[in-house]
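Hi everyone, sorry if this is the wrong subforum. Our group has a chain we'd like a structural model of before ordering constructs, and none of us has done structure prediction before. Sequence below.
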Amino acid sequence: MGDHAETTALLRLVTWLSPAFPIGAFSYSGGIEQAVHDGLIRDAPGLTAWLRVLIVHGSGWNDAVLLAESYRFHGNAERLEGVRELAEAMAGSYERHRETTLQGEAFLTAAMPWMTIPHAGLAGAVAYPVAVGAVAGLCSTRLEPALAAYLHATVSNLVSVAIRCGVTGQKDGVAVLAALEPSIADSAARAASSTLDDLGSASILADISALRHETLHSRLFRS
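Answer:
Right subforum, don't worry. Here is the predicted structure as tokens:
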């Protein structure tokens, strides 16, 4: 890939995974709101540890594996459909299902100006990482940068959630992002050579928080 093509690919990733891209990411907390309510996340160090687990061992890691698979097989309708179905089935709660599929569908709609194939050949409920992977593959952004950008966007949104929940301020929030850079880079590199056999998580408290949020009485977020 030449310098111009690499710059174009970078610009696309920055645009697609910007907080301004209209997928409604700001309205989801991925269970962070419940974890704050339960006292599981109290400060910036606790937030850093929580997010590191997500992207190394939890839902963030699984999303990265699914993104990588959909990137590689974006041109194979049968394989891509299998990834789409698997990603939907892996949504472990009602809110998690809505969070990933509504963002996925919104992403495909918003990304139409870059797509030569309507909806990248996807139909039905499409999980967010599958949508991003298919479009990134279609546009040849390179896999590892797409994974890094996706994981960074994920933790950036969750840091914003924590700020709005009063766990940390903006200055410490930026420090959390800086502290997570090595974990993001490592997970992106590992996911770039992953297969579906590498799916699996060990973020039990985060998963329980996502489930408990469904009955949280007073809430700011949809998950």
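For your construct planning: Residues 99 and 124 are 15 Å apart (CA to CA). Residues 27-215 form a domain with the Urease accessory protein UreF fold (CATH 1.10.4190.10).
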